[in-house]
Amino acid sequence: MSSRTTPVVGSTRTALVAAAVVLVAVLLVTAGGDPRDVPVTEWPFHALLVVLLLLAVVAATTARRRPARATSALAAVLVLLLNLAAAVNTYVDYDRTLGAVLGVEPADEESLARLLRQTSVPAAGEIAAVTVPTRRSGFAARQALVYVPPAWFHRPRPKLPVIVLLHGTPGTPSDWFGPGRAAASADAFAAAHGGTAPVLVAPDINGTEDADTECVDSPLGRVETALTEDLPAFVTSTFRTQPTGRGWAVAGLSEGGACATMLALRHPALFETFGDYSGLAGPRVGDTNADTASTVSGLFGGSSSAFAAHEPSALLADRRFPRLGGWFEVGDSDAEPYAAQEALVPLARRSGITVCSVVVPGGGHTFDVFSQAFSDSLPWLAQRVGLPTTGVSCPRQ
User: Fold this and answer.
1) pLDDT tens digit sequence for 49-68
2) Which of 91, 165, 227, 273 could form a disulfide linkage to 384, CB 3.0–4.6 angstroms apart?
């Protein structure tokens, strides 16, 4: 390397290092100083990855010794792959913080014991990881997450209503409090209503990251029993909430959306309100509404009648549900869930259900749509479960 090019390379390297330091500082400030809350879908994080890639490329092309060049080239490849992974993550809007990517507890997550002991009223809601006993179902569930609003800490403790939030597949209960932004939506609602909001309960519906139970009792586990018997018993006794019925709603995203509709139709005495965000037409172990054969064989032991007993269109055709209310929301670029919503909404209305229906222009099967759907529907859900609310509307697109 000539002496004239060396200062240029050194200046470039110095500028890149300085840029990386500035970007790290911006990310930490944005996260309030907690690395777990560093946003990984915003431009500073992507800019940092690009800067790190350029640094690795500069190091690989200017290193004089072969081992150093090889190490720097390998680092460049790894950072390039990290850039691609980050781009995909941002596109599907899944993990929004560094803590979510690494599977680290969110900064605001408490233990249940500490939550129950707390006597001061916080400014915002708090989240606890809980183990739900599954004595009746025997389902091997992962820990659930429970959000309680500031009003829950008052003494005497108020009996608040409950919204059960179901995740999708692949997925975990924490999806609702990471990319789903449920706590932020509930905190905003509580701030506008004197600290009062529903208790949010996000149980595990699959047992593992990529299982797909469709919330039914099957060879994969007695999940329907877990959600309709074990979960209500635990939540009402532990958090002193409203009893099931008018005071309980169930909502979900993707697989969880189809589950929410199915559970409300099969158990209207437990859940008088439901929210279906981008769900398919009913239980499906595949990705299309038409793929029912694999569901019948995989989840219902080949029984078409058992499948029909869980299929929303069949349930809506056979019964009336005048006490139920349902919120459907989907992106118009999400073909199969959009088709499901187009089919189910008129059937639900004809069966006597109070139906709200929203179509998000350009929306896909992403957490942008899922989180927006929960935020859109929360005031209506809260009113349905018995909280005095303001700004409630029921779209009928």
Assistant:
1) 888 888 888 877 887 777 77
2) 273
Instruction: Examine residue 389 and state whether it is found in any structural domain, yes or no.
Output: no
- Give CA–CA dist 30/20, Å, rounded: 15
How crowded is the C-beta side of 240, counted as CA atoms within 13 Å? 10
- Into how many domains does the chain fold? 2
What is the rounded CA–CA span in Å between residue 196 and residue 175?
Answer: 23
Instruction: Tell which of 101, 119, 143 closes a domain.
Output: 101
Predicted confidence band of residue 94 (pLDDT cuts 50, 70, 90)? low
Cα 127 to chain center, whole Å? 14
Environment class of residue 295 by beta-carbon count within 10 Å: exposed (0-12), middle (13-18) or buried (19+)?
buried
Residue 5 has pLDDT above 80, yes or no: no
Is residue 394 a part of any domain in this protein? no
Phi-psi sector, 93: left (phi>0), alpha (psi -120 to 50), beta: left
> Of 13-22, 60-69, 93-102, 281-290, where does mean pLDDT reach its minimum?
93-102
| 86 and 148 co-located in one domain | no
Closest to 279 measured CA to CA, from 145, 211, 373: 373
User: For residue 198, is the peptide bond before it cis, meaning its omega torsion is within 30 degrees of 0?
Assistant: no
Residues 147 and 96 grouped into a single domain: no
Q: What is the CATH number of the domain that holds 271?
A: 3.40.50.1820
pLDDT: is 7 or 362 the higher one? 362
Contact of 24 with 48, CB cutoff 8 Å = yes
| Single-letter residue type at 99 | G
Q: Which amino acid is at 253?
A: L
Distance between CA atoms of residues 91 and 104, nearest Å: 22
**CA torsion through residues 295, 296, 302, 306, sign:** positive
Which residue, 85, 101, 117, sits at the end of a domain?
101
- Is 80 part of any domain? yes
